[in-house]
């Protein structure tokens, strides 16, 4: 049975005319890694808020259809209860730091204090999360003295420590430098490998190709297509509709038009796939 | 982004005077220290004896700064900030308070009498006690320890959050303001010159700062909701803050002293 189910979800923000999400059907299996791609304004963030309960509990407006996680309907569950099932991490690392705490250790414990977890269990869970996210060395630092990548790992740790069943990430690396982004992806991948259900909105197509089980292309509030990373990410309809496309796909597509890409292979997304393709082509060329 | 070592917390980075040391004063419950602070202030203002304030500084506050092992920081604040300010009040009151019979000195519009001199000293020393007591309190009490303790005693957690997060976020906003100033200057904004010119230059600085902060407020609200801030379950606390019998005895003792002073004040007047 699917862990996350969206049925015919349509949502309109307050004081707006057109819905941002239009009749979304989506189901995500336990342990699955689903990536969501789409141009600006496609409704990616809104979809994240809908899954993580901020729609309808935080953002008012008009929601129709059904959002279920582990059999519970979002409308019938309080937000403070919902966040223990679905964790949300978003772009800006700075604004995810609560400001209520003076060390990283306390910052991570903040959510557990709110949930009324006993101090002994709290400490055990914070310790475990520090290891998991590789930020043990930052534990006594002020969250405000950290780099963006470190702050984002603290934000991620602060959510993971609450042990949600689903992790929703809305462009978690878009404000980070390459090193920070790699560190954050490392944690996300490790969580996925441990069996956590991950829903990731991301622009870095090559990372998606390497990690995701399934890709959903969102366009003007509707699901345009979904499938395996290779199917979706190299689809010829995407560039014209404003989707980001991997530079390796672009290169290989241009090469294919000149007959320089092997017909037997699909277009590549990652550097490794591209190298493989050109190798094949060169070894079979006269 | 300012990167600093974990051990050092420059004051401008967190808007707090707290100095981390091991001492009896540090180990006292925050409420006990808060009670002490207010008791010192009340006694200084209520006591009918003229030299109470001076005695409190000499016998209680200064020695306590040694007990708390923050004597250097306390002395620095007292001499560099507090002494000039209270000195100014003393001089102004001594010369310009109306009344006073026993003239000591007269030059043009300046007139010093022994009565205004005594009154000026009393006012200055009371302010000295008040600010000193708070400095000592802030030097030895971590703001989050104070808020945790008060929340446990029934202060609404929303209010505690507003206080602590403001202390932390103001320095961040300050550095953001610096960035905006640099950005607008690089586009030719003149932030120097006459007063009027400077005021006009504020407009393109305040806009981005205020609107940027408002967007951030929404995001921060989402972030703390995502961590169950509004959960109806009773909160727990990571750090146990001991509230010993000694703490309770000290607090009741202080309340008793304040009442005693109040009684003496009523009796003698």
Can you identify the CATH superfamily of the domain at 1-85 and 193-244 in chain A? P-loop containing nucleotide triphosphate hydrolases
Largest sheet of chain B: 2 strands, antiparallel
C-alpha Rg of chain B (nearest Å): 24 Å
Give me the oligomer status.
heterodimer
The structural class of chain B is mainly alpha
Rg of chain A, Cα atoms, Å? 20 Å
User: Regarding CATH, which class of the domain at 1-85 and 193-244 in chain A?
Assistant: Alpha Beta
Strand order of the largest sheet of chain A: 6-7-8-3-9-10
Number of helices of chain A: 12
Number of strands of chain B: 2
Number of domains in the coordinates of chain B?
2
Could you name the ranges of chain A where pLDDT drops below 50 across 5 or more consecutive residues? none
Overall mean pLDDT of chain B stands at: 87
State the low-pLDDT regions of chain B, or none.
1-12
Fraction of residues of chain A in helices?
Answer: 25-40%
Instruction: Name the overall outline of chain B.
Output: flat
Q: How large is the count of helical segments of chain B?
A: 10
Shape of chain A: globular
């Amino acid at each position: 049975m699917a862990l996350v189910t969206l049925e015919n979800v349509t949502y309109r923000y307050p004081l707006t005319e057109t819905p941002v999400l239009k009749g979304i059907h989506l189901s995500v299996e336990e342990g699955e890694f689903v990536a969501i791609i789409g141009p600006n304004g496609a409704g990616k963030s809104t979809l994240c808020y809908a899954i993580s309960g901020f729609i309808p509990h935080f953002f008012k407006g008009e929601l129709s259809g059904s959002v279920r996680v582990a059999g519970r309907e979002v409308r019938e569950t309080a937000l403070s209860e919902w966040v223990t099932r679905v964790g949300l991490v978003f772009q800006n690392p700075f604004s995810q730091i609560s400001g209520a705490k003076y060390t990283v250790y306390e910052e991570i414990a903040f959510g557990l204090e709110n949930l009324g977890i006993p101090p002994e269990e709290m400490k055990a869970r914070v310790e475990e999360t520090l290891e998991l996210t590789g930020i043990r060395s930052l534990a006594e630092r002020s969250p405000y003295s950290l780099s963006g990548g470190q702050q984002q790992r603290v934000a991620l740790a602060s959510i993971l420590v609450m042990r949600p069943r689903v992790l929703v990430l809305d462009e978690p690396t878009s404000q980070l430098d390459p090193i920070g982004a790699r560190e954050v992806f490392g944690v996300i991948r490790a969580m996925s490998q441990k069996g956590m259900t991950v829903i990731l909105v991301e622009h870095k197509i090559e990372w998606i190709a390497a990690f995701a089980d399934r890709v959903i292309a969102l366009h003007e509030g509707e699901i345009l297509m979904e499938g395996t990373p290779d199917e979706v990410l190299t689809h010829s309809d995407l560039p014209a509709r404003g989707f980001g496309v991997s530079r390796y796909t672009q290169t290989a597509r241009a090469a294919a038009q000149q007959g320089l890409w092997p017909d037997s292979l699909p277009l590549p997304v990652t550097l490794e796939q591209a190298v493989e393709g050109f190798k094949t082509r060169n070894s079979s060329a006269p | 982004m300012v990167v600093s070592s974990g051990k050092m917390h420059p004051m401008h980075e967190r808007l707090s005077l707290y100095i981390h040391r091991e001492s009896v004063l540090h180990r006292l419950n925050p409420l006990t220290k808060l009670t002490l602070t207010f008791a010192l202030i009340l006694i200084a203002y209520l006591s009918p004896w003229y030299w109470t304030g001076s005695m409190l500084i000499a016998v209680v506050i200064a020695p306590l700064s040694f007990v708390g092992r923050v004597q250097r920081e306390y002395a620095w604040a007292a001499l560099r900030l507090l002494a000039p300010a209270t000195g100014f009040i003393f001089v102004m009151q001594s010369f310009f308070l109306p009344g006073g019979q026993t003239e000591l000195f007269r030059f043009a519009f300046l007139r010093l009498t022994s009565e205004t001199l005594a009154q000026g000293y009393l006012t200055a020393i009371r302010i000295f006690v008040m600010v000193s007591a708070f400095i000592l309190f802030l030097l030895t009490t971590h703001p989050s320890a104070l808020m945790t303790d008060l929340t446990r005693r029934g202060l609404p957690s929303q209010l505690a959050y507003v206080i602590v997060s403001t202390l932390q976020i103001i320095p961040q906003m300050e550095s953001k303001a610096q960035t905006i100033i640099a950005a607008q200057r690089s586009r030719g904004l003149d932030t120097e010159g006459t007063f009027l010119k400077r005021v006009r230059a504020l407009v393109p600085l305040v806009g981005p700062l205020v609107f940027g902060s408002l967007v951030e407020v929404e995001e921060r609200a989402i972030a703390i909701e995502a961590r169950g801030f509004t959960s109806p379950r009773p909160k727990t606390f990571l750090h146990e803050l001991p509230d010993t019998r000694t703490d309770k005895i000290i607090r009741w003792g202080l309340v008793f002293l304040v009442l005693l002073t109040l009684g003496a004040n009523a009796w003698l007047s």
